[in-house]
Design brief:
8 helices; alpha/beta; Cobalt-precorrin-4 Transmethylase, domain 1
């Protein structure tokens, strides 16, 4: 079984040097992202995959996301193959980078918390990328989100969700909420589990995600100055549709993701 590493306690003398070149690169890359949103996604953001071929807007999202990861010292690694659109991707959730990580392999419409929509710049860029915003704990909001998800899936776009309902800590994979799987049943699309895993030398790093009581800016700065590591996206075997047992679909998806997180080594 792959060893899970805990936070490093040794002083990292290279951190200031990494900030010296990564911060300017990040600023330039954000400006490029703004230009992409204005010049491309605003006009072609609703484009869909045709005959397995990605539209230009989707390729641009993957390119921008891949380079954002590299600026943070993360090497994108794909294991397995994503199914052709439309698909409901369900993934584990430990970091704000999870969205970028999955986007580096497949441009999808994410379901994200409504607070992100109010973040300066980030909220606008997320909207340009087709993000569906959900107010947690609000049943009316969830019903509206489910309806939009079905509409996007039927229109040919893939949608990605984090069925844990929030970020996990210390490598713990929380229970998956089954109701979200109803969107795939209503739209009659396949559910593909995706395991998102940070690693170094083949060993999983559970400290790459949010630490308890760590905010977005604190996590961003910590990762921006951190040493290189791999950012793995494991596309797993699809989950059979069982309309009479959404709970079984959720449990099976969680089981496959948990296995990939714990037992896979690159």
């Amino acid at each position: 079984m792959t060893t899970q590493t805990m936070p490093e306690t040794r002083r990292d003398f290279l951190r200031p040097l990494r900030y010296l070149w990564r911060v300017p690169c990040l600023l330039v890359h954000v400006i490029l992202g703004i230009l992409l949103c204005i010049g491309l996604l605003a006009w072609t953001g609703r484009a869909v995959m045709r005959n397995g071929q990605e539209p230009l807007a989707h390729r641009a999202i993957r390119w921008w996301s891949s380079w954002l990861l590299r600026i943070f010292g993360l090497r994108p690694v794909r294991v397995g193959q994503p199914l052709a659109d439309p698909v409901l991707f369900v993934a584990n959730h430990t970091s704000w980078l999870d969205i970028v990580l999955l986007h580096s392999q497949r441009a999808v419409c994410f379901v994200a918390k409504a607070e992100i929509a109010r973040w300066p710049l980030v909220g606008w860029m997320a909207s340009c990328g087709g993000t569906i915003f959900h107010r947690r704990g609000n049943n009316h909001s969830l019903a509206s989100v489910m309806q939009v998800m079905v509409e996007r899936l039927r229109a040919g776009r893939s949608v990605a969700v984090f069925p844990e309902g929030g970020t996990g800590h210390n490598g713990v994979l929380k229970v998956f909420h089954a109701r979200i799987f109803q969107a795939a049943l209503d739209a009659e699309v396949i559910v593909q589990p995706v395991a998102l895993r940070f690693a170094r030398h083949g060993r999983r790093l559970i400290d790459a995600g949010f630490r308890e009581d760590e905010n977005f800016m604190g996590n961003l700065l910590r990762l921006l100055g951190g040493p290189p590591m791999d950012a793995e996206v494991h596309f797993l075997q699809a989950v059979p549709s069982t309309p009479e047992a959404r709970r079984r679909m959720a449990e099976l998806a969680r089981e496959r993701i948990g296995h990939a997180l714990d037992d896979h080594a690159i």
